[in-house]
## 1
Amino acid sequence: MSAIIENNQLPFSAKFLQFYKDRTLLAILLSLFAVMFIYGIFFTENYLTITNFKAIIRDAALYGIMAIGLTFVTLSGNFFLLSLKETASICGVTFAMGMATGFGSPDLAGNFLVSLLAALTVGVVSGVIQGYFVGMGGNPIVVTLGGAGILYGIGAWWSDNLVINFTRPHDAEWLGTGSFLGLPSITWSFILIAIAAEIVLRHTNFGRKVYLVGANKAAGKATGHENFSMAIIVFTICSVCCAFVAVAFVAQMDSAQSNYFSAEFGSSGDMTILVIATVMVGGNSIMGGYGSTLRTSLGAIFIAMVDNMMVLQGFNSGPRIVGVGLMIVFSIIVFGLFAKGSRAQE
Amino acid sequence: MSTNPILKISNVSRTFGAIQALKEANFEINEGEIMGLVGENGAGKSTLVKIISGFDPGFKGSYQINNKEVKFETPSQAEESGIAIAQQELSLIPNMSVAENIFLTGAKVKKFATLNTLAKMARPYLDQVGLTEVDPTTRINLLSVGEQHLVEVARLISREAKILILDEPTAALGEAESRRILEMVERLAANGKSIIYVSHRLDEIFKITKRITILRDGVSQGIQETKDIDVNKLVEIMLGRELANMFPSKADHISDDPKLEVKELWPDGVLEPVSFSAFKGEILGLSGQLGSGAGEVLASIAGALQSRSGSLTLNGETFLPKSPSHAIKKKIAYCSSDRKKDGLFLGRPIFENLTSPALGAISKYGFNFGSSEDNYSRNLAKEFLIDVKRMHDESGLLSGGNQQKVALGKWLSIKPDVLLVNEPTRGVDVGAKSEIYQRMRELAARGITIIFASTDIQEITYLPDRVITFYRGMMIDEHRLEKIKTPVILKEITDPFNETNL
């Protein structure tokens, strides 16, 4: 033991944890997957079917994409964008308005590209504005909670709280319900976005800056990486992800209403909570500077697996929401314990 | 003097990970005695203080109070035995009254007590520390910093502390306030309290202590009677070698080719605009105590602190940096005094720290696939004697000296023309100190202009080619090469206008 200390100048345990931290956490997540999987095979009917797994990934895709966007915010140390579902809501309303009315000009009604661009633009604008205030030093919780109210309110006001319908066939079907090589478009989007995000984080200057600024804002500023521009970019990325999910979801439903992402969405009721849960279950550090979008993607699939199993076991939505809550608590405890072991002493 | 130490520590050692903070420390204090505790940064003073005050139970060795072996698990247990500590950073609540702060824990106070009752109860303690004229109902943040220190001590006395540890109580204070603290210490000792006085200010140590314990590299160097020892001897024991050997030799001459011209720079904390030039390849030291403005001038050159006016001229361009990133673009690098706060990304690997200011240079079209970064960070690590095998470790796992090398070394990645360093060796062990000085000298020899600010008088005397002294926000004087003398500088940074007649 003493020889090890001499050679490596570090106690063995710290060295071990330091070196294997990433792998250990990944191993925990993977073994949880395995446990779920085996449990599913033996105790749940209709579990081991291709259709069911496609359904799991498909479920994971919607909030997984938003969670990937949110991961950028969290990694950069800007905590959370709490206006996730409201951003999605207003973008969904915008998209449906475009598809249904063409924003007042009948020529454009049903034009997918225009509607998509409009929805993404709304996402960009709301992201830039919220990012600007956070970058100026605003508390992200306060800024994005305020943003949430404003965004939701505008969407509800604009749509008179009504359901905006547009009828099939429409140009957005391919995104909403279409599929390619046997996988739904939204699943493909999830996969592509997850890969792209991971490449950006690992192999670009921007990605490195996200980690650095997240690890220490003051040191980031001192080395020329200000949180001001960082906040604007990450909030915009996150909002655009919300906008994209909203478009896909609205395209699937052929309709939009401002409260779609609060009440109607998926199994777990509130979209914002579900997305934040995904980031947390993936084991990303709430304080920033540590984590990855890969973890978030795995977290999304894990939550979808648990949820799927509970559905097949016949639970209704109440207990399933409890399940998501328990997963957050559990993951925070597990990851917290491991992260502590490896952190440097003062 | 019948000496039976009321507190005695023998053969204490303490390790943190690979770092041995204390190797073999002995310490004792008698009743009513003022014991000085001195040592360089990193010598183990703060570790010893933490052990004595119960913050750190994980040590090996013997700890006796009144000849009885004790083992404190928490600071409150130590407090019950009459040991209390006033930390360098105050733990008062700014918008509560003096009396409320004194009785913050609520011990000895009835369940319901008005501010007036508390004020009456607080009076005697305030008198003891010499705050006779302060109204106990005043809010803490209306008092001066020195008075706040006194309140902190009053709080300790109120809990019937017998042994008081004062950790650098005068570090942030001016001359007059410091004197109040010293008077209080002497008064308390006369009342039978034992006081462990930790300070870097050797003049104070000589003025008030009876005996001095000197720590060097975690080993206590025996207890010295203050009257038998002089400053030079004390410093020699502290450093374990002749002062001058730690430092590389100075330049033969100073180039007269001004590299950086600072004109009328006027940041907060400086009384009047400051102008000076720095020459190519020299090491320029800005000397001054805390609050003298030296550090502020440095930060404003780097754009980390806004300046009201003025400009810099570097390489024929005249500008005033608005932000650190602006300064970095102009090849000005700034290593701040607090590496944990804004010098290092502690949770990130060493190589990411080393390349953090120069991401543009290691990437192509914004993409970075590692190989160029690898070379880059390896070269920097070799140059700064950082272990290349540990490049993927978190920088937070390094010792203070190695952290400082990373914090400083990362700036070479932008190939700076001007390197600004605030407190180049704060919290760094002696060996790393010497290495850092060596490195700074080599960089200067390569033509980089280095400006550093320091409160460390040895550093200011032996490292730079030229020194500018600061006192309370004013530039006082400039000295060159062999004209740099410790007494002159000390005089200029503590009392240039003969205000105190010390």
## 2
Amino acid sequence: MSETTSQLRERRWGMVIDLDRCTGCGACVAACKAENNVPEVSRRDAFSGRVMNWIRVAHSESQERHGPSAAYPILCLHCDDPPCTKVCPVHATYVGVDGIVGQTYPRCIGCRYCMGACPYTVKVFNWHEPQWESELRAHTNPDVSLRPKGVVEKCTFCSHRLQTARDDAACESRDVEESDYQPACVEVCPARAMTFGDLRDPNSDVSSMARSPRSHRMLEELGTEPSVIYLKERERRV
Amino acid sequence: MIRALQWLSIALMWGFALSLMVLVPWLVVVAARWHDALNWSLAISLVMLPVYLTVAGVLTYVFVGLQRGRDDRSSP
Amino acid sequence: MSEPTPTAPVGLDEDLYRPIEQTGRGFYSMAAFFLAVFAFGVYQYIRQLRFGLGVTGMNQPVTWGFYIINFVFFIGISHAGTLISAILRLTQAEWRRPITRMAEVITAIVLAIGGLHPIIDLGRPDRLLNVFKWGRLQSPLLWDVMSITAYFAASTVYLYLPLIPDIARLRDRGTRPQWLYRFLSWNWQDTPQQRKVLHNAMNLLMILVIPVAVSVHTVISYIFAMTLEAGWHSTIFGPYFVAGAIFSGIAALMVVMIVFRKVYHLERYLKPIHFSNLAKLLLVMSIVWFYLTFSEYLTGFFGNEPAELDVLMTKISGPYAFPFWLMVFVNFVVPVALLSRKKTRSIPVILFVSVGIVVGMWIERLIIVVPSLAVPYVEFPQHAYWPSIAEIGIFAGAIAAFCLGFMVFAKFFPLICIWEIEEGRSEALEESVERFRSYLPDPPREDALKEGRP
């Protein structure tokens, strides 16, 4: 296991998703796409399974597989011991000091080994040179780099916002607070199903929610130690 | 001319082996610098290096051996 | 099939020089054909470079397709050569003599082709050098880079060393291009000392090349086994891949041997006994392969772990059922049915079985690579994987490159190790009599040895 995992970490940014609140509306998907300049793909590519989303909402109807129940958003879980970073041949994906699993696009050689190694299937690949319609291109987020064709990308917990928050905090000579840094999906969620914060801080909202008896992590048995924690639905009385 | 080509091929083989000898420690340095499982990369590099050295060594042994072993009286 | 009786006098290996010294029209037309197919593959690759990997049929979640399948397949075939020829030489199997060269040539060519496939598969081949600059030795892909390089180096040298005396023969016959043979023969004059040097070096390489060859396919299996994917994360993948590699390697070797036997009229050298012996080896490997396949899938099935079972079910009854059962049929049922009886172990049957196995082992790689990706742990929109023209074109180009490489080799160098055959005629017979005697319980009688009679 890499030495980065425990000793060097200052923080561990994490997310709690309350499945009891999630309505599966897909606002997080749209917000994420706009925030992170995730390109639209052509109709043909979409039909052949090359849709690019950093977060997707799975629904229980289609769920024959072994994830949690109901509508549940899936994004990169920012594992503590990620299977993807272990197999990368060029250090293009790594666990950062904040517990965020990052991607270095200019270094990625596009072997797609990390995509196959990820048990959650959250990484996407730029099968073609990304194309925007002219208006959309003008409205891309300047804080997030545009990816070229042939590299792997995925959710970064909007780490560019962490960058901004760090800069702001440094100007005011204080530490980054949770309220300074929230990913786009969390911000936009109308049902407030997502909560974001520092899992290292025992007093944070995420930490207390993570202690809930409803909390579980996806495919816990694989030992990847995800930083995204799901709260399963309460039983309902009919 | 042919002699030069022959020595060139030996040199290439050694260049190949030596560049791998340089590459592998460099990759270990990268692993150390980025705190990325240094011990494992050390273990792997120790397995890989002797193989290249042996192959290059065998080739040189043959080429030098054939030169020494030839019958000089009838050499072309 | 009736075998032509040997007519040429012993000691004359003219048949082996003929393909080098006389090139027919057939050669050029075949070469042109393969070159055209190869060019089509290159064209498809250039298209892929220009438009990105989107020209292939790969998608999410099936992120690896034909290229990785072919990579595993070609590297598997490469085990034909060096490994088999090294093992046969090491065990002093006398019938190896006309086989070793072809096996080694297959290895060298196929390894070069297979080794290129991961590069073809890259989304950013222009950044290939990042593997050297920022490579992570901890990644199984780097293990692969290292061990395939080592195997390529070792097997090329292992092909070249036994070639030296033959090259010297060609040089002395005045075969053109002289400069090539003079360059490669390295002043070989067949002096006792040179023989000793070559012999020592070959012995050393022979032993070195076996663990390296085993490591290559083990490490390739580790690419899959080191991940947590259901259907990949298996402890027996190392030996499973190595066994499969040797299996497909022998089959490919037989196909090549039968084809070139026909084309270059090598019936005097490659006799039914050689095919029969190799067929027995093939039969054994077929059973070993089935045993490992069975063990691999039974543990998944019996454990009933949901993810593992889902992958297994797509293979045996889902969309991959047809290739799966075809694979079992051609890799196990057909060889066992046809090769286990002496009556059916004839050359045309062996050709049929071997072609089946080569195809079957390709399907096996498909069955390993694709279904595990297509059925991920977590629910994901499903899309069938179908190769596009790019993948098919590059696959055809790779096969054409192999044929072309083999033909070009056969144009310049003898396909059967001439000095080994000569050695077999002149020395090996007596040597093996001695050897057999040393196996026997009675101590060899001094007087009999001196007189040189049994």
